[in-house]
């Protein structure tokens, strides 16, 4: 797995930068109900997308969460006062806190099905009844399409993805 502490400084540039962030934020917001007032952006990384989510709608309060100190520092600079360092398997929020939770390209990084279940269960716990969870699956299906991440992963052995849609 990548060391996100070392990757934080160059992460955005190596992952499509602002154009990719704009597309991701637009895609996520298209799935979040207009009346959502509190959104949790889980595994927010550098906050490049989180910042766009927070600025996109009046009245939408966005909180970012990431596990890596270096990522949290970068995200906190982009979204001051709205980023927390925490493990997605044990979120520091009361039940039913959020109207929407997002976790974009997180599940494939987890060590196995039990960890995926734990993260999804935490997302469900912090969602209010009737809230919306937006996530991505099948990250491996997006590889080998000539993207920057293909070069990063080329030297690594392939492993079965834990975020396959069927799972």
Secondary-structure map:
Blueprint: H1 4-14, H2 17-29, E1 38-42, H3 48-56, E2 61-66, H4 69-78, E3 83-85, E4 98-103, H5 113-126, E5 127-135, H6 148-153
Parallel strand pairs: 1-2, 1-4, 2-3, 4-5
Task: Describe the protein in words.
- By secondary structure, the protein is α/β, with parallel strands linked by helices.
- The protein has one domain: Rossmann fold, CATH 3.40.50.
- It is 38% helix and 17% strand.
- The protein has 6 helices and 5 strands.
- It has helices at residues 4-14, 17-29, 48-56, 69-78, 113-126, 148-153; strands at 38-42, 61-66, 83-85, 98-103, 127-135.
- A 5-stranded parallel sheet has the order 3-2-1-4-5.
- Helix 5 links the parallel strand 4 and strand 5 (127-135).
- Helix 1 (4-14) crosses helix 4 (69-78) and helix 2 (17-29) packs across helix 3.
- The longest helix is centred in the last third of the chain and has 14 residues, at 113-126.
């Amino acid at each position: 797995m990548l060391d996100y502490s070392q990757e934080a400084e160059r992460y955005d540039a190596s992952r499509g930068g602002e154009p990719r962030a704009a597309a991701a934020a637009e895609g996520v917001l298209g799935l979040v109900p207009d009346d959502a007032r509190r959104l949790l952006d889980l595994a927010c990384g550098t906050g490049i997308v989180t910042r766009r989510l927070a600025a996109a709608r009046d009245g939408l309060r966005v909180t970012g969460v990431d596990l890596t100190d270096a990522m949290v520092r970068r995200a906190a600079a982009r979204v001051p006062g709205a980023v927390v360092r925490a493990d997605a398997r044990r979120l520091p929020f009361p039940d039913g806190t959020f109207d929407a939770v997002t976790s974009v390209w997180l599940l494939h990084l987890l060590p196995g099905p039990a960890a995926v279940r734990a993260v999804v269960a935490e997302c469900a716990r912090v969602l209010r009844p009737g809230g919306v969870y937006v996530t991505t699956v099948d990250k491996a299906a997006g590889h080998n399409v000539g993207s920057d991440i293909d070069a990063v992963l080329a030297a690594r052995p392939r492993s079965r993805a834990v975020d396959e849609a069927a799972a």
